[in-house]
Every structure is written in structure tokens, then in C-alpha cells.
Amino acid sequence: MKPGGRFAILASLSALRDSAWAAAKRFPVVLALCAICAAYAVWLVGLDGEQPEFHHVLFSLALGLPLSLGLALATGRYGGRLRGHSTALNLALILILVVHYLAMERARGEGYDIRYAHQLVAVGVTFFVVSFLGRDEGNGFRQFIRSFLTRALVSFLYSVVFFASFSLAILSVEKLFDVKVEHRTYIRLWLLTVFVLFPWHLMAGLPGKLAALNRDRAWPGYLRVFAQYLLVPIVAAYAFILYAYMARIAWLRDWPRGTVAWLVTGISIVGTATWLMAGAFRDDAKARLLGAFHRAFFWLVPPLLLLHLLGLWRRVSEYGLTEPRYFLFGLGLWMLAMAGYYLFGRKKDIRALPVSLALLSFLALWGPWSAYDVAVRDQAGRLSALFERNGLVRDGKLAPAKKRVDWEQRREMSSKLDYLVSRGRLEALGSLLTPGLKRLAVEADSGDDGYRWLRSDRTRKFMGELGMEYVREWEKRSEDARFRYYADALGRDDSPLSVRGFDYAQALDGRFKGSFTAGGRKCETRLNAPGARFELLVDGTVAARVSLEQAARSIRAGRLSQERAGKKPRVTVAFENEKVRLLLLVNALSGYVSKDGVRVDTGTGLLFLKLK
């Protein structure tokens, strides 16, 4: 290697070191928090099984990254006014993260995910504007967004290349040298990349003097090309489609579909980002299309927003309010307000967008007006009305159904109960709950329902207490009549079960599937679904075929499923021949009864067996 090349490499390494060190001195708290997140996440990967409370710690720590970075930037921007209180501010940051973890412990499953995403949006929007709250700093705010996002994209590309290269190197060593590498190694490498390399590289490239950004009017030409020849045509194409759809429903006198709200929201977000970018080029002779878009965008949006709100109103009137619909309503009204401000306001400050969005986001997080409380109250109120219409409320309390409830009504009840269970808010039914239902509600609300099957299992129990079958969200009504039965370990009857005359007991899972050895003989059990038969094989030969048809028809007819849970008779099937004697205690059974016969899809139970 030539001396000049060696010196160039050394100079590059020195520049890299100086840049990394400068970022560490400028953002010590942020990088310390990044290191804590990385170490904790790497440790978390080594745990076996689901540990939601540990994951929640990581999420709270991760929320501190934009908070601490925004605090560091604001401290550097406003100088002595904040620098003298840096210790107090950092302690306040730690307190906020602790309070966040404790407050979020109640939110589980989908409720946690939506709340956390909401908090990230609120904190992220605040982060972008907090250092530019001075007078006439709109251009500085716009320039900061540009520099931050372009640097974030470069940092992301660096991180992806770093991770891919090192992963390939580890894989090569594993294959070439027969070295066993645990698959979690790659996950740990990705976590280190996300929590250390990416933020460090990002922060090393952030503008040093934020105040100087307000005087910078230069924008890269590639952004002008990107906005003018890609973003503007995309927004225009989708706007044309939506306006054509609006003309169609006006001609047909129809209601807009619910999905139109998401499309209008998408075009509003992309269009607003394009509008912000176009503002930097509105006086550029090479960007006349961007100038025209900047002038026309907020005239284009209001009719689409009215379509958006109309479609949402129809959706909410039919199915009730949920957090996503609350947010879509809020975004629609906010965009209408912003359109009015930028069309008719005297001073058109672009910072009005993030400031108003941040305030509304924080307002929607807490309190009786929050997205979460409003949605739960609406769903619980609609569910209470459903119960009353179907005769399930007697003397102010929920009571078992006296007659079979219509499938559509049960499906709607199941859906709303699923929603309340997924948010841990069954107690919102309030005074309607009997003591037994309150215990079920406490059990469901305290559980972690990150898994949908757990949620549906809790809803099924609740519906069972009311003498109704649970209907899954994906089920469709058909000519076939669905039946389900679910019991505890010894069925719903509290009386003792006699097992005299049997030598073995074996639990059967899934489709009554089991494999065991009894008396030195190999036994297997299985479900013959189309024939609705339970089969027992001994030493590879069918020793018993037991029909489940009568039990299935009894459940479907309501003699079992419509009895109040806790007093249901047990479902047992007895069989005896010259080879075996058996008693099958059914814990769960589901399938279809149709004109062509009975089909059993799943079943679990306890088998009592005597081999002859």
C-alpha cells in the first residue's frame, strides 16, 4: 500500500472517531439510554417463554430515546435557560419513564400496542418542533425535518449493510468451520445495530447549530425532483380516484364504504408531507408544479375530508366507536381545521401543523375524552343495549338466555366482548355483572391477551355463562348449524364421577388424539371427523369405534349448551365390547350438524379405560 493511501485510511478512521466522540459529548444521556436499551434487549432475547412485563420495560425505555434526544436538542438550542437545569430535567425524564411503565401495565394485548403507537406519534411530533418555538422559525423547522429525515435514511442504510455483512460473516464461519451458532445471535446483532449503531450514526450527523437553520434556504435538487415527479403525481392520481368515487356514490345515491376513510387519511398524510416540501420550492423557477401544488393542496382536501367523515359516521353508527375510528375522526377534523387556517388565516405558519397535532395527540391519551375511554364506553353501551334487546337483562343484572339467540346477535355480542377483553375492560359493563360474571371479568381483565385464542377462550366462557355459543370474528353463517361445548376438567357438574371398573385414565388433546401404553399394550386414540366417531386402537388394531353423533346433536339442540354454565350436565360417552370397556368424559367438542349428518372438528377429554 502506498504511504498516501495508508495516511488516507488513518485520516478516515480519525474523522470517524472524532465524529463519534463529538456525538457522545453532545448527547451523553441519549447514548447511555441507547446502551441500556441494547443491553436489556440482548438479555431479554435469552429468556424462554413470553415475559410481557419485561417487554414493557423495554418499550418504556425505548420511548425515552426521542424524549431524551428532544430534550438534549432543546437544551442546546435555548442555551443557558435550560442548561442550568439539566440535572433536574434528566431526573424528570427518568420519573416520566417509570410512571409510563407503571401506568401502561394495565394496558394489555391490542390495547397496549395502540396506546404505545399513539404515544410514539405524540412524542415524535413534539420532538420535531420543540427546538423551534421561537418567533418566525418556520424555515428552521422545515430545514430540521429535512436534515433529520435524510440523515435517518442514510443511517438506516448503513445499519442494514452493517447487519447484513456481519450476519453473512457469522453464517460463513458457521458453515465453513462447523461452528454451531445459536439463532439468537443474529437477533442480538440486530438489536445492537438498532439501539447502538443507528442512533449513534444519526446523532453524529444532526445539525450542530439549530438557530442557523432558519437562515438556510438551500434545498437539494434531488428532493425537488423526488417531490415534483413522484410525490405530486401520486397524490394527484389518488385524489382523482377519490373524486371519481365521490361522483359515483352521488350518482348512485349510495353511502361511502368504510375503507374510504383510510384512503383519505393516506392521501392527507402524504399530501401534507409533499406540501411541506413544496413550500421550500414555491419560488423556484424549476419547480412550477410544486408551486402550483402548494397553492392548490388545501383547496383539494376539504371535499375528500367530508367524504372521509361521512364514511366514518356510517361505520360508527353500525359498529360503534373504536380507537382507530376515533383517530380517523380526529385526523379528519384536524385536517379540515388546518385547511381553513392555511386558506383563510392571515399568518400561515407551518409550525401550526405539528404544534396542533402534538396538543391533540396528548389530549387524546388521557382522561374521559381520551380515545380509549370513549371507545370502551361506546362499545360497552352498545353491548348492554344488545343484552337488553335479547332478554338477557333481568332485574338489572345479566341472566342466561331463556331462548336461543339469533346468530347475528350472538356474533355482534361476541365481537364486542372480544373488544372489551382485548382492552382488559370487561368491568365497563358495571352494574349488569353478577358476582359470578364479575369474577370472570376480573380474571379476563388481569390476564395477558396478546394471543387471540386466549381472548376468544375468555369470551367463550363469558358467553357460556349467559347460555350462548360464542361466534368467532371470522365465522360466516351457513346452512350448517355450528355447535360448541366447553367444560372444565371434570365437566360442569359438581357431583363426583364414578370410575369403578376402569384401570387407566388418559388425557386426550386436540382431536381426541393420544398415544400411551396400558398393560404393556400400545394404545392410540383418534377422531374420525366426517363420521363423528371416536376410535381406539390397541396394538395397531381398531378395538372400539364410538359414535359422537348423539352427544353432538344434544349440544346443538341446546339441551347442554343452553343450560347455565356451572350447572351443565357432563358430556360422557360409554362403550363396551369383548375387547375393551371405556368411558369418554368430554371437555370440549365442536363441529357442524347439517342435513347430511354430523361432523366433529375438534374434541378434548379424559378417557377411562379397561382392557379385557
Order of SSEs: HHHHHHHHHHHHHHEEHHHEEEEEEHEEE
> Helical proportion?
55-70%
The helix-and-strand class reads alpha+beta
Q: Uncertain regions: pLDDT < 50 for 5+ in a row?
A: 448-453, 559-567
First CA to last CA: what distance? 88 Å
Query: How many structurally independent domains?
Result: 4
Strand segment count? 11
Overall shape: globular
Largest sheet: 5 strands, antiparallel
What's the tally of helices?
18
Overall pLDDT metric: 81
Q: What is the alpha-carbon Rg in Å?
A: 32 Å
User: How much of the polypeptide forms β-strand, as a percent range?
Assistant: 5-15%
Structure description:
This protein has helices at residues 3-26, 28-45, 52-78, 80-83, 86-104, 110-129, 138-176, 184-204, 221-252, 259-279, 288-319, 323-344, 352-363, 371-389, 407-422, 435-446, 452-465, 549-557, and strands spanning 393-394, 397-398, 481-486, 504-508, 514-518, 521-528, 533-538, 541-547, 571-576, 580-594, 597-611. The chain has 612 residues and is an alpha+beta fold. The protein folds into four domains: 15-215, no CATH class; 221-363; 371-477, no CATH class; 484-611, no CATH class. The strands form three sheets. Strands 3, 4, 9, 10 and 11 form a five-stranded antiparallel beta sheet that branches. The longest helix has 39 residues, at 138-176.
Features:
612 residues, globular, single chain, alpha+beta, four-stranded antiparallel sheet
Short description:
By secondary structure, the chain is of the alpha+beta class.
